[in-house]
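Forum: Protein Structure Q&A
Topic: Joint prediction for protein chains with partners

I've read a bunch of threads here and the consensus seems to be that you should model interacting components together rather than docking separate models afterwards. I'd like to see that in practice. Below is the full input, 426 residues plus whatever partners are listed. Could one of the regulars post the assembled result?
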Amino acid sequence: MQQRIELAVSTVSFALRPHPETGRKTLWLPLVKRIREPFLGRWALPGGPLQPDEDLDTSARRTLLRTTGLEPAHLEQLYSFGGVDRSPDRVVSIVYWALVRPDEDARAIDGENVEWFVADEVPELAFDHNTIVRYALDRLRAKITYSDIAHAFTGEEFTIAQLREVHEAVRQVRLDPANFRRQTLAHPRIVATGRHLTGTSHRPPELYRLERA
Amino acid sequence: MQQRIELAVSTVSFALRPHPETGRKTLWLPLVKRIREPFLGRWALPGGPLQPDEDLDTSARRTLLRTTGLEPAHLEQLYSFGGVDRSPDRVVSIVYWALVRPDEDARAIDGENVEWFVADEVPELAFDHNTIVRYALDRLRAKITYSDIAHAFTGEEFTIAQLREVHEAVRQVRLDPANFRRQTLAHPRIVATGRHLTGTSHRPPELYRLERA
DNA sequence: GCAAAAGTGTTTCAATTACACCCATGT
DNA sequence: ACATGGGTGTAATTGAAACACTTTTGC
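Posted by a regular:
Agreed with the consensus. Here's the joint model:
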């Protein structure tokens, strides 16, 4: 008799929040406590079995909304993990990663079995989920250097400094404000709104938008 | 009653061969003629159902060897396709892409139901396999610009011109020989063997190796 | 006025590009 | 000798980085 292969979809969601010690913004992600074997009681990525009538990304969104209350702006397939030894039963996981905006992050629920962790300081997780988190982090840090995804962490309108803060938090580096500004404004899709952000204790910075391609 | 979700692994394999018209090297890939419904008689990517006791990449290698006789040097996961509308029955495909060396390519079998096509000129394929081929091509052409994968198309030892030919064939561009040489030799893992390639009708070029990291 | 971050200008340095020119081999 | 691609030299251009300096707000 042939053993059945389970097919699950999981998601690594990232949001930027202040680090509990340093106060500087860092990456956080939500985990779910397992309520059944295997790995009962361990933290794991949100996810669940793929339903016969739903697309892969639909499944990711559904399970993410159910467990964490999140509807992320950016969702992207990461990788599929299917080693025979990653679980007692045979399960192939198609993993997505998501980026959560500040306003959306505010709506996140910290339920009974859901908790957020600093992405670089997650405990020992169920299955091979530590590997997956590591992989997602690497991919995010690589991709932010050559793509637009940093905007998935800002609002519609943003200051150059806010965008720089995202890069600094994700890549864990310090960037020269002057050079970052020039590089950013060199992209033709970044346009000034003419309005300014007020309420700061210094010169009010201009607000920009990212023109959709 | 819940419909069963099929799980298959397919592979897009690339090799460099002369274009039938221009004679210049281009990308080719093997396709398999379907011998059952759906899409009976159409060309499709080599692959098959995932066995319960094999890893994803093992499955890719197995089906590839069985249908095409190939054991590619480079094999990498591409993407997983799982839209509900990509087939009459529900099937999720985990797709790999492979790069085949010239010597390995020579061992390829052109069986009854296996045929090679110029990658940019494939006919209308079964399922969403045209989309997948397009995706694999884009990924290959992007990745060759920032990684080492060009070496998967050369032998252990190679001349700078051979390596340049790979880049030119894949990216469909002309590269300045002098500048390409300097850029290539700037990488510390490229080392001269001291030996030279003979039998050319001009100055014998030096042979190089790629030191493993 | 002072602090603090926004925003501009300028100099330096490294990498890419274009292209002229010499080298070593087969015919 | 000459054709052919291998291989070297070099000037021009571009872009990244470093950092001094000016501007505009809140307090």
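Strands of chain B lie at 6-18, 25-33, 43-44, 47-49, 74-81, 91-99, 114-118, 157-158, 190-196, 206-210.
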